[in-house]
Design a protein that fits this description.
α1 runs antiparallel to α2. The protein folds into two domains: about 130 residues, no CATH class; about 60 residues, no CATH class. It is globular, with a radius of gyration of 21 Å. The chain has six helices and four strands. About 15% of the residues are buried. It is α+β, with helices and mostly antiparallel strands and about 230 residues long. The model has no long low-confidence stretch (mean pLDDT about 85). Helices cover about 30% and strands about 20% of the residues.
């Protein structure tokens, strides 16, 4: 299945520019994930631009000074990196691209636990490209979030099969899903209220806020959401 890029909201995500202030720089990160059976392809890019006229008085166009692109293929469900490719579209120095092959060391790493620390260890400072390393740290959470997306995608594919009979998720399968978030933020702290409620078994994990809001728009219930996530 393919999706057009206009599937996503492209409205501005920054608040309006403050009045009377000169723009000096724009940094843009873009990360997109694809199902590449049986794996996940994470594609990312970072681009730095200077506004028109800043460096060259008579130049009417923005000036790109950095543009790095990274492809990472991740095994599912282990989230281990099985392939990596780094490309420099624009860079300040002629010798910048010689570092790209160093990122082959990504292969074999888990993109989940300990990834940020390992990236700093392998590619921090003079061992890598500052902008590429920052991009990798922005890409890692997307891979983790795709754990849920891959499960939902598999459910949608199965539903299109005339032979498909939905099966309830086991407790182990449900635990495997939410535990990918463990200690990733204050909400998912292992000693926090959310995790303790789930582990107690007394409280069923509620639909997230974004899902509840969309359910209202669609006239659906939280039970419909759980079915859609293959949680019945």
């Amino acid at each position: 299945m393919t999706h057009s890029t206009d599937t996503f909201d492209r409205s501005e995500i920054l608040p309006p520019d403050p009045d009377g202030l000169e723009i000096l720089h724009d940094r843009e990160y873009r990360v997109r994930a694809f199902r590449k059976d049986p794996n996940i392809l994470i594609r990312g890019a970072v681009r730095d631009q200077k506004p028109p006229h800043l460096y060259f008085r008579d130049d009417p166009n923005p000036l790109t000074i950095h543009h790095m692109q990274v492809d990472i293929e991740v095994a599912f469900p282990s989230l281990e990196i099985v392939a990596a490719d780094v490309h420099f579209e624009m860079h300040p120095n002629d010798t910048c691209p010689i570092i790209t092959t160093h990122y082959d060391k990504l292969v074999g790493l888990s993109i989940a636990r300990g990834f940020t620390h390992k990236v700093r260890e392998l590619f921090g400072g003079p061992r890598g490209c500052t902008h590429t390393t920052a991009l990798l740290q922005a890409m890692a959470p997307v891979a983790v979030q795709c754990f849920w997306s891959m499960t939902a995608s598999e459910g949608r594919r199965n539903e299109r099969s005339v032979d498909f009979v939905p099966k309830p998720m086991t407790r182990e399968q449900r635990d495997g899903q939410w535990k990918t978030n463990l200690n990733t933020c204050h909400i998912w702290a292992e000693d926090g209220e959310m995790v303790q409620s789930i582990q107690s078994g007394n409280v069923e994990m509620a639909a997230p806020r974004f899902a509840r809001q969309r359910l209202v728009d669609l006239g659906l219930t939280e039970d419909d959401w759980r079915k859609g996530m293959r949680g019945v």
